[in-house]
From TrEMBL:
The lineage of its organism: Bacteria, Pseudomonadati, Pseudomonadota, Gammaproteobacteria, Oceanospirillales. Pfam families: Glycos_transf_2. Gene3D superfamilies: Spore Coat Polysaccharide Biosynthesis Protein SpsA, Chain A. GO terms for molecular function: undecaprenyl-phosphate 4-deoxy-4-formamido-L-arabinose transferase activity. Residues 35-194 form the Glycosyltransferase 2-like domain. Signal peptide: none annotated. Keywords: Cell membrane, Glycosyltransferase, Lipopolysaccharide biosynthesis, Membrane, Transferase, Transmembrane, Transmembrane helix. This is Glycosyltransferase, probably involved in cell wall biogenesis. GO terms for cellular component: plasma membrane. GO terms for biological process: lipopolysaccharide biosynthetic process.
């Protein structure tokens, strides 16, 4: 049984005046509520800046904002900073993993804990401009899911190469034609997140979510966003063990989907 991720197009393009009017109206009328999810592992040098920027950016667009930071067993001062931020800002809601569960495990905890009508997630390392959530929200009423893609990825060449090879493999196996599958700048409706089963502990989490979105015939809009170099802290995505676990999860997911009658996900542009 084929399942489609449908990249929907508007039947009739609005005029420039209509687009301007719609944008102004959207800016004046706030959406109901959002849960903003950040996984964090040893991000003591970045997490406070990220949280404060998130509060400012999302309160412009939502009546109610909660910032869920999943401290994934950090051994530095991340926990203490989050607990202080909890006292200082009512929007902040930290969740602490006693042991490190991996990137996917932290994202899963945050997504499933969200209480807002919308759930957004990003990384806590400051590589995205959270003010650009506005670029996603312009399309949220017309699509089930809106995802960012890094217009110009600001990572070392080896990480870009790893990401390219990974993307080619995932698209070949699952037919997901989202151009930047692992871009951590996505917004969903909470009812979708609550309806899917997320098992990935590592980098496979984005593929797992988008594969299920395709099987449910969700509509997806892709939007270019800015990406900046990491200024401090250490990334873990290029760790050989992390990469190995990602491949194990990849083929486990593929096997599970084939076993349930899954054939191929096809994206219609």
């Amino acid at each position: 049984m084929e399942a489609d991720i449908i990249l929907r197009k508007v039947d009739k393009a609005p005029t420039e005046d209509a687009q301007t009017e719609a944008s102004a109206s959207a800016q004046n009328k706030k959406l109901s509520s959002v849960s903003v999810v950040f996984p964090a592992y040893n991000e003591e040098t970045n997490i406070e800046m990220t949280v404060l920027k998130a509060i400012g950016a999302f309160k412009k667009h939502f009546e109610t904002v909660e910032i869920i930071v999943v401290n994934d067993g950090s051994s530095d001062g991340t926990r203490d900073i989050l607990e202080r931020l909890r006292q200082e800002h009512e929007e902040v809601r930290p969740i602490h993993h006693v042991q490190n569960k991996g990137y996917g495990g932290a994202v899963r905890t945050g997504l499933k804990s969200g209480r807002g009508d919308f759930i957004f997630f990003s990384d806590s390392d400051g590589q995205f401009d959270l003010e650009e959530v506005d670029l996603l929200l312009r399309h949220i009423n017309d699509y089930d899911i809106v995802v960012g893609y890094r217009a110009q990825r600001a990572d070392p060449w080896h990480r870009k190469l790893n990401a390219y090879c990974w993307g080619v493999l995932v698209r070949y196996l699952f037919g997901i034609r989202v151009r930047d599958i692992d871009c951590a700048f996505k917004i969903f409706r909470r009812d979708f997140i609550q309806s899917i089963r997320i098992e990935a502990e590592g980098a496979m989490i984005n593929t797992e979510i988008l594969a299920q979105a395709g099987m449910m015939h969700c509509t997806i809009k892709q939007v270019p966003v800015s990406h900046y170099p990491r200024l401090s802290g250490a990334a873990t995505g290029a760790n050989p063990l992390v990469i190995f676990k990602a491949f194990v999860e990849l083929f486990n997911l593929y096997g599970k989907l084939k076993a349930t009658g899954y054939k191929e996900l096809q994206t219609k542009a």
